[in-house]
Amino acid sequence: YWFSNNDGYVDLSIETSLGAVPTNWDTPYLVQESGEMVAGTNKLVAMFSPPFDQWIEMSPDLTRIAMGATTSPFYHTITELNSNPFSGNDILAGTSDGLVWKGDFTNGNMTNVTANLPEHYVSSVRFSKKVNGKLYVAMTGYYNNFNQALVFKSENGGQSWSNIASNLPAIGIN
């Protein structure tokens, strides 16, 4: 990866063995307790040992583009990552086109757990720190002028989701 100063702007590019991959303006990173560094592009990428100089692609494209969506004017990316406190290799990943994935980042075996979630930009994904299998997702409709709080909880590892935003003000969650 590299940083460059471009008239006061700092750019971050992630290079993998297959070349540059798309990144978000706030690309999410995780440093696992076991030392691996994981980042979200349109795929999960990781570095496993010092000197941390080469990203390795760990998953296929996790956006709707890979699922056949061709009508989007934007190239979507992973916007959020979170580690499972009960299992070091499990992570949650949310995308800018409203998908949520759960799985083992070390082998790229990710499962789409979007289920009944609406199709909005994922602004946060979290594993519960106290209950294994409980997940939380926040989304924002800011880009679509959709001003509602979008906060969801799953009690069953992402098989189904319930809206828990009932008492929140009608604003986007970022």
Question: What keywords describe this structure?
Answer:
mainly beta; 4-stranded antiparallel beta sheet; 15 strands; globular
H and E order:
EEEEEEEEEEEEEEE
What profile does the largest beta sheet have? 4 strands, antiparallel
How many individual β-strands? 15
Low-pLDDT stretches: 1-11
- Radius of gyration over all CA atoms, rounded: 16 Å
> What is the residue-averaged pLDDT?
83
Structural class: mainly beta
Across the major sheet, the strand order is 4-5-6-7
In short:
By secondary structure, this protein is mainly beta. Helices cover 0% and strands 45% of the residues.
Structural features, described:
The protein has 174 residues and is an all-beta fold. The protein contains no helices and 15 strands. The strands form 4 sheets. It has a 4-stranded antiparallel β-sheet with strand order 4-5-6-7, with no helix packed on it.
